[in-house]
Amino acid sequence: MSYNMDLNIDNYDFDDILTLFKLPYHYTEKDMKAAKKIVHQTHPDKSGLDKDYFFFFSKAYKLLYKVFVFRSKIAIKQRDDKDYDAEDVEEFETENEELINRIKKSKNFNTVFNELFTNMHMVREEDGYGDWLKDDNCIELPKCKTPKDMAGVLSAHRETMVLVKHDIQDFYTSTGHNLDGVESYGSGLFSKLQYDDLKNAHEESIIPILESGNMKHQSYDAALEERKTITAPIEKKTAENMIKQQLLLADKEANLRAFKLAKETTKNEEKQTVWWSKFKQILDSK
């Protein structure tokens, strides 16, 4: 175990944590027990290491545990290093209730709340349309004085469009239930989404068939031969391999999605704890 390792859990992805605990991709409950032993071995009393190592491995283990629960879809008894009893819960609830009552009576509640919200709210940088909605470039229209100018603009726009090739996809997956973004949007019968995406519904235009996209054939027979090749059904073995790869990909995406949600949940819990602490500090200082 390295003594100079990065202890910031935010810098680790799912594969990194699996490597950290030497776990296979499809780890089992037995693997989880082995990972928990590693966490216990990093305890300062046993390892002599700084407590930050124990906190780091504990966070990493909890992320793996959340992914395991999400993936297994079964009720698993919560395993915590600390035992809680009813008195702890009642004391926590009573403390928050008293703080809430103080907040309600505070004359500068809006100021306190806005200050905390600015500093504590979580932003998913990779998602959302905040910058796009604020940008006026997407709604600027070209300045065309004559129909000829407009035709030139449309022609230039068509030349920049690219037709994207997609392999065979499952029809039943086109319901739009996936948490991640899909690659194609449209209002057609077999589209992934019925224009449920704001940005694509606003910007999407009909993609024309360009002359450069037409198939070139030296003879009629060559065209028929190529058409037979394209429309020929795939072999059973090839289809089975494709289905297997699709299932593996779907499983991997589910694990990565679960890991991402687990990270966000952990951050949210930490933010909530700091939120109440900051609220109390600000109220005491006013």
Automatic annotation (TrEMBL):
This is J domain-containing protein.
